[in-house]
Amino acid sequence: MGLTNGAGIRSDTRPFDERMRRPGSLRTVFASGVLVTAGALAVSAQPAPPATPTPLVRSPGNADWAVSVEEARKRASAEQKPFVFVEFDRQGCGNCTRMDQLLYPAFDFEALLVPMVPIKVDLDSAEGQALALRYEIDDAPSVLVVTPQGRLAFLMQGFQNAPDFYSHIHEQLDAYRRFARKVDGQDVAKLTAPEALATGRELSQRHDPAAALPRLQRVERAPDGTEAMREEALELEAAAELDLGNSAAAQRTIQKLISSSKDPARQERAELFLAQIPLAANNPAEALKRLQEFRKAYPQSAYAAQVDAIIQKLQEPRPH
Fold first, then answer.
1. How many domains does the chain have?
2. Where are the beta strands (DSSP E) in the chain?
3. Which domain holds residue 128?
4. Which of 192, 194, 197 minimizes the C-alpha distance to 212?
5. Does the predicted TM-score (pTM) go above 0.90?
6. What are the b/e assignments for 94-132, b being 16+ CB within 10 Å?
7. What is the mean pLDDT of residues 145-157?
8. DSSP classification of residue 151
């Protein structure tokens, strides 16, 4: 569970499967997450907030802080550093200042940044909002550690104290390194169905759909795959295809699941996913039609409140 202090600041350090299935989010539709949510809709339907210049960081940790996330990723790749360290703050955030004061002077922070290129991002800037949407960040201060390609290695929302921060980040980075070595050593064509599904699921949860996709497709072909495994793989596969921008492939995959599954709950999730695909293709009128049809077909849906929120947002006048 997330950790809280007296001020209610939380460190969201739960395992990936718990974090990605939290109640109240349409990301619960699939384990890997649905690309289009009410939050995504709000961002796409309104003008992007004006870009806020990244605050200059005067070398805390004796590191050369990047001035944009893109620069940080390029530098990490060029310098063969495995990680990008992203610190989110916002104007007037007292806990952000407190976190900086507790972390920056420490030798532990300097050692932590050795394999990383760090960047500080205003959560309310256009760049910050785009990252927050992708990685489900809604709080400042937050710390995100990703590979240069964007695979999630660590996420903490809120701040409790420095020892807690270092304990969690080292533990989760060690777990990520073990996972990455396993992934790098896999021959996807020879994976068993359980291995392919477990790895594909975690890669999806770590926001790496490109690496997840071939493993999920392997589940369908593996001779030891069960019907339940293949159906979960199809769910995740459709979400990965949508994340990669291939809405046509995602639609074909989810329709394949709808036509074959006999699980009512899975059918409902698949129908909801299908209804949201037009949002990714920037076709809100079609999405509205499909979502309204979904609500008629599933009046008692567990996702009713979230779907109604998206329908309401779609019905609002759009800015020109």
1. 2
2. 3-4, 10-11, 83-89, 116-122, 142-146, 152-157
3. 50-183
4. 197
5. no
6. ebbeebbeebeeeebbeebbeebbbbbbbbbbebbbebb
7. 97
8. -
Residue from 25, 33, 28 nearest 241 by CA: 33
CA dihedral (148, 153, 156, 161) positive or negative: negative
DSSP 208-250: -HHHHHHHHHHHHH-TT--HHHHHHHHHHHHHHHHHTT-HHHH
Q: Residues 174, 77: one domain?
A: yes
- pLDDT grade, residue 17 (50/70/90)? very low
- Do 112 and 206 belong to one domain? no
Q: Do 310 and 243 lie in a common domain?
A: yes
Do residue 135 and residue 218 come from a single domain? no
For residue 228, tell me if it sits in a domain.
Answer: yes
From the list 148, 176, 168, 169, the residue with the least C-alpha distance to 83 is: 148
Q: How confident is the model at residue 293 (pLDDT cuts 50, 70, 90)?
A: very high
What's residue 318's pLDDT?
Answer: 74
Q: Which long-range contacts (CB under 8 A, 24 or more apart) does 68-73 make?
A: 68/119, 68/127, 69/119, 69/121, 69/127, 69/131, 71/119, 72/117, 72/118, 72/119, 73/117, 73/148, 73/149, 73/150
Task: List, for residues 29-41, the tens digit of each pLDDT value.
Answer: 333 334 344 344 4
What is the pairing mode between strands 116-122 and 83-89?
parallel
Could you give the CA distance from residue 100 to residue 79 in angstroms, rounded to a whole number? 25
At residue 35, the pLDDT reads 38
- Half-sphere exposure for 11 (CA within 13 Å, toward CB): 19
Q: Please give the distance of CA 106 from its chain centroid, rounded to a whole number.
A: 30
